[in-house]
């Protein structure tokens, strides 16, 4: 049996040692804070100078396959295009005003890359119940959209809408009211490894001064055209549409020049 302690006295702490310990802790915290701040500033500077296209998400072969019918009534998989660079565009062909600026940009892409075998345009109808493969063939004739470069495609309406919202990360789910479709017209640029990519630009204050970080820019040409109509092009040498189109071409060129890192 242990005996109770006897004649114990409280420990006497040395004030000088306590102050020294406190000083050391504060110094360590201060140095750590400075090192973290330096590392953060270096990383921010590196990111600010990094103009590579930003990653949005990735199309995975094990869960993001998407079966489509095309303008020649053939079936194909979107992921058959992995290994090439391509754009995916949501459209309602019978509502041309909803993608009028986008349409011209796609024609510019055709003129620029139409002879390449490793670049493709995929326009997917959001109204497949009323835009059948036969009609897609008619639209393709009007656009000069020929396979394999330019797909006009469709699938079940529900699966199309979910794919754009959940996989391609559209701003909102397409919806139809009184015969008019509302949808996010932003289109997606996909690299050879299935990554959705967006360009980055240096952020600016309202006075035009550049900030030390970069923002991702969505390829929403209808929004850019609307801003141009409203005169919102402060700080730009060209219109919003032309500036965004230059970013599109620059990003596409970089992705085309970059080989795939993995097998399709």
UniProtKB/TrEMBL annotation:
<keyword id="KW-1133">Transmembrane helix</keyword>
<comment type="similarity">
    <text>Belongs to the SCO1/2 family.</text>
</comment>
<dbReference type="InterPro" id="IPR036249">
    <property type="entry name" value="Thioredoxin-like_sf"/>
</dbReference>
<keyword id="KW-0812">Transmembrane</keyword>
<protein>
    <submittedName>
        <fullName>Electron transporter SCO1/senC</fullName>
    </submittedName>
</protein>
<dbReference type="Pfam" id="PF02630">
    <property type="entry name" value="SCO1-SenC"/>
</dbReference>
<keyword id="KW-0472">Membrane</keyword>
<feature type="transmembrane region" description="Helical">
    <location>
        <begin position="20"/>
        <end position="40"/>
    </location>
</feature>
<dbReference type="InterPro" id="IPR003782">
    <property type="entry name" value="SCO1/SenC"/>
</dbReference>
